[in-house]
Amino acid sequence: MPSLKLILLAAASLVIVLLLISCDSQKPAVGLEDEIFVIADTSEYYELEPALAEVFEKVIYTPQPEKLFELKRKPFEQLNGVKNKKNVIIIAPLNSGSLTSDYISGLLDSNVNKLVSDGSEYAFIKNELWARDQLVMILTAPTIDDLKQNILINKENLIHYFKTISNKRLYKSLYNAKYERKDVEAQLLKDHGWIIYVQADFQLAKNAHEDNFVWLRRSPNSEMERWIFVHWIENASPELLMPDSIFAIRNRLTKKHYLTSDNQEFVEISNDQLPAVTEVNFLDRYALLTQGFWRFSMKSGGGPFLSYTFFDEQTKRIYMLDGSVYAPKYYKKKILQQLDVILQSWMPAYELPESKIKSLMSELE
After folding, report:
1. Are residues 94 and 159 in the same domain?
2. Could you report the per-residue pLDDT of 107-160, keeping only the tens digit for each?
3. Of the candidates 173, 195, 226, which is a domain's last residue?
4. Cβ 240 vs Cβ 254: under 8 Å
5. What are the percentages of helix, strand and coil residues in the chain, rounded to 5?
6. Using CA atoms, how far apart are residues 189 and 360, in angstroms rounded to an integer?
7. Which residues are bridge partners to 202 per DSSP?
8. What's the CA dihedral at 3, 4, 8, 9 to 10 degrees?
9. How far, in Å, CA of 286 to CA of 264, rounded?
10. 39 Cβ contact list (under 8 Å, min separation 6)
């Protein structure tokens, strides 16, 4: 007859196995990347909607007006119907008496509830609560007014959570080893000491050693082109990280390398509206993110672009990683996000595992 100790060990092992099976059996979250489902009581949502819309439904221009995210409110009774969605917000004031408020109080332990009551905490992130690659954000505060104020004051942080997980999900969908241009990545590593993820439908349009300039181009001469360039300055100083310098460098490069097929026009930054420049963390490096519009020199067309400019301490290089879209008949927000995700796949040789370097170098043999 087995001992009690063995029975307990077996029971514990069974629990662990069941937990692992449960985690592995989670289905991937579904829905559009720019949808956020909001669980809220009707009357409470009516008061909170303007603040939520100001933060999450911010209009961006590409140049068509597009919302950053689309909010879709559902009553608490329909919570089960959104448990498989990618982006979820559960929002209510603490102890308001609504079903959503009672649910939030039950999710948070007494210590956390006290922090909310004291005004110390208001936002709680639960990753993969019900589905893989899912983000559930719980927003609560002592009163409706406190909640609205917290949302507006901390809007950049709130958006950052959803943009970050959206980029991670998008990278998973974009990355496919079967269709990866490893030959191009290997050439870039050999020639310049860095790599960037190259999808199968991108071409190495230019590899201009004299200008430290690489141009990756997708669907040339079509109605939906995507351009990526990487440029770097050797033995550089971080003092060059200034908006005016970034604009001048970009215009110099595109005037020389981004030409129409008849060489009659070149690309330049549109001066109708100066690009926005913000300080960001790019791959654990201080960087300037530039977002704006480009145009052809004879104003025959244009589109949006984004670029990251940063100083790499180890190589003493300033890098500019830039993505542009030319798709005059299409909305461009999602295309621009795809380019952003590709730019964030950049990696210098010194950060690559030796096995990755050997694997890529074998592509050139």
Report:
1. yes
2. 888 888 889 988 889 999 999 999 999 999 999 999 999 999 999 999 999 999
3. 173
4. no
5. 40, 30, 30
6. 8
7. 218
8. -30
9. 37
10. 74, 75, 76, 78, 79, 82, 88, 89, 90, 91, 100
91 burial level (CB within 10 Å; 0-12, 13-18, 19+): buried
What amino acid is encoded at 184 in this protein? Answer: V
Last residue of a domain, one of 141, 173, 205: 173
Beta partners for 311? 318
The whole-angstrom separation of Cα 244 and Cα 241 is 9
Provide the token pair at 360: 């890529």
Q: One-letter amino acid identity for 142?
A: P
Round to whole Å and give the CA distance between 258 and 273. Answer: 20
Residues 169 and 183 in one domain: no
Note the helical H segments in the chain. 4-24, 42-56, 99-107, 110-117, 144-153, 155-174, 182-192, 243-257, 333-343, 354-361
The whole model's pTM is what? 0.86
Cα→Cα distances 75→32, 41, 101, 194, Å: 20, 6, 12, 49
Please measure the distance between the N-terminal and C-terminal CA atoms of the chain and give it in whole angstroms. 64
- Residue 171 burial (CB < 10 Å; 0-12/13-18/19+)? middle
Q: Can the peptide bond before residue 50 be classed as cis, meaning omega within 30 degrees of 0?
A: no
| Amino acid in position 252 | R
Condensed to tens digits (0 to 9), the pLDDT of residues 189-217 reads 999 999 999 999 999 999 999 999 999 99
Q: Would you give the DSSP letter of residue 99?
A: H
Lowest mean pLDDT among 20-24, 254-258, 267-271: 20-24
pLDDT in tens, 4-14: 333 333 334 33
Label each residue of 263-291 as H, E or C.
CCCEEEECCCCCCEEEEEEECCEEEEEEE
User: Containing domain of residue 108, as a range?
Assistant: 26-173
